[in-house]
Every structure is written in C-alpha cells, then in structure tokens.
Design goal:
Blueprint: E1 2-8, E2 11-18, E3 21-25, E4 33-39, E5 44-46, E6 54-58, H1 62-68, E7 77-81, E8 86-87, E9 92-95, E10 102-104, E11 106-112, H2 121-124, E12 128-135, E13 138-139, H3 140-146, H4 150-154, E14 159-166, E15 175-180, E16 183-189, H5 197-207, E17 215-217, E18 225-227, E19 232-237, E20 241-249
Parallel strand pairs: 6-17, 8-14, 9-20
Antiparallel strand pairs: 1-2, 1-5, 1-14, 2-3, 3-4, 6-7, 10-13, 10-18, 11-12, 11-17, 12-14, 15-16, 15-19, 19-20
Length: 251
Amino acid sequence: MKIVRVEYEGRQFYGVLEKEEVCLLKSLSSLEETGQRVPLSGAKLLAPAQPSKIVALGLNYRDHAHELGMPLPSEPLIFLKPPSAIIGPEEEIILPPQSKRVDYEAELAIVIGRAAKNVSPDEALSYVLGYTCFNDVTARDLQQKDGQWTRAKSFDTFAPFGPWIETDLDPSDLKIEARVNGERKQFSSTRELVFSVPEIVAFVSQVMTLFPGDLIATGTPPGVGPLFPGDTVEIEIEGLGILRNKVRASH
C-alpha cells in the first residue's frame, strides 16, 4: 500500500495511491477510507506524514564508516531534525547564506504507525507503518564548525521526504541511490546498515516515545557531496520511488 498526503482543491488529505487515483483516508493512524476518490493529476503530493519529530542516525552504514576511516559505533548515534525543516516532493531546497557547503544525504526513513515506548527488537516492526525516501540535507561546514549537529541539520527545507509511504516492504536489502543532475553520487544497499530497522526502532523507543507519523532516518551510505543552486537532487530507494527536489540560493 502506498500512502500519500495530497493537497486537492485547497484542502489536505491522506490517501492511498491506486494507479491514477487517490482513495482518501480519514487519518494516517486509522487508515479508514472515506469512500472519496480524487484524480492524482489534480492533486499535489505533499510530504506523506506530519511527524512530531524526526530522529536521525549518524554513521550507520558499514561502507560509509569505511570510507571515512572511522570505527563502527557500538550503539546508534542519534540526533534530531525539526518538523519545520520538512518539505515534500518537487519542493525546493534553499541554501542558507550562513553555509558555504550544503550536502545531500540519501536515507531510508522509517515511519511509525502507533505509539512506541520501550519496545523490544522482536516486536519493533509491529510499530512501523512503512518506509519512505529521505534526504538528510546538511550544512557540512557548520556541522564541522559547531562540533554538534543541530544548526547544520535544522535549516528550513533540510528535511525532504516522500513521495509516499510504502507499507508492504522488507527493508533489509534495498538498493539506495542519490543522483545530482542525473549523475549517480551514492549507491549502496540497506544490507550495509550497522543497526537494523528493528534494532533502531527499539533503541530510539528506549529514549523517547515515538508517535504515529514520526520519522526515523536510518543513516546515509558513502558518497555524500555538495549541492549548488540550480541542481536537481534525486533520492531513489528500491520499492519506494524517487524523491526529487531542486536547489536554489536563499536570495
């Protein structure tokens, strides 16, 4: 099932994508259909969830750690991105004037389906609604300057995700790719994850309660690099479609 969030005739709806139509839902948590359908051609795809928080992981691909010459972490390294950074498919990433280098980071994101607190890895997948493509846009120079990541990860437009949430997917071995202006920059598989999806969900739930719609971005493979005004960046994950965003300067 492909769950989308759309704007249609000035109103916003959750729905299930069925070929060229969107079957509207009462809410993301209930997934109960309203019986209404709208044409996809007349709807604008939005970011497919409205999370209370975005939890993200650093250094969670073995091949990325190898690229950096860094040891694998002994437990997930987590940080937060604010919901104010969210944009959807085809919206613009805006490069802030404070940064001289802004990077793309292709990531698989987990979307939480029901409240999760202190869950075990064995039961973690029952709390997952599905998965989506995520771009952990990062002001790399500010990340290095600050020594912690909040400012570098939190600018408006620095959390594109979409185009939908896929509920029927095994996340353990999916091809993941980033392209800039059609040129492949990152390519790996989620089998390279240091910590699996069940381990990640369980770990984060031991720290904070996860609510329906919350996102966990699972880390990025090797090959991150800079974005420039006029670029088009695409994140493609097997079974999840393509998240596409253009890039522009702030002025």
